[in-house]
Amino acid sequence: MTYPDFAARWQKSGGAERANYGLFLQDLCDLLGVPKPDPTTDTASQDQ
User: Fold this and answer.
1) What is the pLDDT of residues 14-47, one digit of tens each?
2) What are the boundaries of each domain within the chain?
3) What is d(CA 12, CA 5) in angstroms, rounded to the nearest whole number?
4) Which of 7, 8, 16, 43 is the most exposed place for a label (fewest CB within 10 A)?
5) Taking the CB of residue 30, how many other CB atoms lie within 10 A of it?
6) pLDDT value at position 2?
7) Residues whose CB falls within 8 Å of the CB of residue 45, separated by 6 or more in sequence, listed in order
8) Contact in structure between 33 and 6 (CB atoms under 8 Å)
9) Is 8's pLDDT higher than 90?
10) CA–CA dist 6, 26 (Å, integer)
């Protein structure tokens, strides 16, 4: 994903930040080229 693609996609979101935060963070990870976070587990010592 390029920055112009990212900006165009999220410019329309308006005031729906809470509803879209998960998708936004996934797209942001793609934009930055970093891995997406792993889901948490039932064992806190395994979550980092």
Assistant:
1) 777 788 999 999 999 999 999 998 888 898 887 7
2) 1-33
3) 12
4) 43
5) 13
6) 94
7) none
8) no
9) yes
10) 11
Can you tell me the distance from the alpha carbon of 29 to that of 1, in angstroms, rounded to the nearest whole number?
10
Q: Between the CA of residue 5 and those of 12, 13, 32, 35, 38, what are the distances in Å?
A: 12, 14, 13, 19, 25
In this prediction the pTM is 0.74
Q: Which residue has the higher pLDDT, 1 or 27?
A: 27
Nearest alpha carbon to residue 21 among 44, 37, 34: 37
Amino acid identity of residue 29, one-letter, is: C
- Show the tokens assigned to 42: 């039932």
What local confidence, expressed as pLDDT, does residue 46 receive?
A: 79
